[in-house]
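Notes on consecutive records. When two proteins share a document, each keeps its own sequence and its own token line. Never mix them. Below: protein one.
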Amino acid sequence: MVTKLILVGKTTDAHIQALTDDYISRLTHYAPLRVVVIPELKNAKSLSHDQQKHLEGEQILRQLQPSDRLVLLDERGAELSSTELAQWLGRHQVSSTPTLTFVICGPYGFSPEVYARANERLALSRLTFSHQMVRLIFVEQLYRAHTILRGEKYHH
């Protein structure tokens, strides 16, 4: 199974990006990982929030294959513990899912078209985090899930 992570916009904080890159590097030891960064929209300030979501949604959908299992990181998604996330990931690894695609959207959320295409939604927390922090927290949790599945000492 290949894991794909689609991110809208770039991380501007060098410290957060360095930590995120470290976990992404660690993750590649467990499974193939492809990271796709969708560029920020030009002239976004002249667009309404709905227009931004629609345009970002079009770019997200272009990155998908019909066989991708699409999982949105969404505040209204299911909340799992780290162990539950590992079990969830393990189920997908043994299923016939060729590509498990996670998406972290821009600041205004997902378009209705992306929600319609999604297979699942996961929430990291009921707390609100910056999109840059969400990236770091999510890749760390994905790494943690892999170490749990392998019985490694990272997760206590």
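Protein two starts on the next line and is unrelated to protein one.
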Amino acid sequence: MADDLRTLLKYIVEHYVVPEEQRAIELDAAPSDGGAMIEGDKRSASRRETERADELAGPFADGLAIAHHRATMGGKTLPLDDRKPDEDAMASALIHFLVSNDLATSRTEETIPQHYTYHVAVRWDRLEAISSEAGIDLARALARHHPA
């Protein structure tokens, strides 16, 4: 997998996903929760999100590269079918790390009962800005990544 796309994912997790999780923990904490308990919950959230990013790094990079290729061909969204394991993993990665952080949008279409196609639209301008913050040339990273 392309190292730059893994680095981008790590940056998103460290600067967007984890801080948001930690804010939610603070907001949801009961007055009786001790500081040590809250800090422990924050560390657990950070560990959980880092592990999830490690697990989904490949599908994240693949989905991003395919979405970019579709965009260069005039496509507005990347359709991902949850009945196909590789596409389901890409949908999970892109929705969790991009959509949840306003770096992409998605809409869901039921294909058959209990199964869906997710149409993900990456907000390339926003993702490019985040990539730049992270010191990554997004266009170059995407051009070098070839999905499995």
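For the record: The two ends are 9 Å apart (CA to CA).
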